[in-house]
Specification:
It is a single chain. The protein is α/β, with parallel strands linked by helices. The chain has one domain: Rossmann fold (3-Layer(aba) Sandwich), CATH 3.40.50.980. Helices cover about 35% and strands about 20% of the residues. The strands form 2 sheets. It has a 5-stranded parallel beta sheet, with helices on both faces. It has a two-stranded antiparallel sheet with strand order 1-2. The longest helix is centred in the first third of the chain and has 16 residues, at about 25-40. It is globular and about 45 Å long.
Length: about 140
Amino acid sequence: DGRRTPANPAFWWVNDEGEEVKWSFEELGSLSRKAANVLSGACGLQRGDRVIAVLPRVPEWWLLNVACMRAGIVLIPGTSQLTAKDISYRLQASKAKCIITSDTLAPAVESVLPGSQFLKSKLIVGQGSRDGWLNLKELL
């Protein structure tokens, strides 16, 4: 029937509820280019700038890793178990210009942001919108 058999996925994610996300190499390439454009465009980041990601292991975690490599941005990963004090310390020590977190973790992350003089942009991963935060899904 002339159809190509789909290539092995470049990315295959399954959560505890059995939800799946599969990206081909082409899709991962395209999505990571778009995400890199979000970081350098809407978030105003340049090569060498640092970004802190406080995210659970959602597909966007890997997508942002690849996007940062593409854009020459340094990704500092943080787990969702970080305390406000941990996040505050990392922001100051790294001089990160952007913080990325999930809609559910945003309120906790937000509490430490007023003290951070280097931060330029805040990016949220997930459904919810939040005042003063950019939404990755909308921007992609």
